[in-house]
Amino acid sequence: MMPIVCSVKIDFYGLTSLLFLSCILAFLSP
After folding, report:
1. In total, how many domains does the chain have?
2. For residue 13, what pLDDT is reported?
3. Containing domain of residue 8, as a range?
4. What 3-state class would DSSP assign to 14?
């Protein structure tokens, strides 16, 4: 579910880099 949410947020906010990093951190986080 996380990747989908990240994609939506990236498309919604347009902050690809920041949200992309957030996605990576979300995946690395337990």
Report:
1. 1
2. 56
3. 1-30
4. coil
For each of the chain's 30 residues, which pLDDT tens digit applies?
A: 455 565 556 555 555 666 677 777 777 766
Do 21 and 8 meet the contact criterion of CB atoms below 8 Å apart? no
**Crossing angle (nearest 10°) for helices 16-28 and 2-13:** 160
CA–CA dist 15, 19 (Å, integer)? 6
Alpha-carbon distances, residue 9 vs 3, 17, 21, 27 (angstroms): 10, 11, 12, 15
Tokens (6 digits) for 25: 């951190």
Please name the residue that has the structure tokens 């990240």: 6
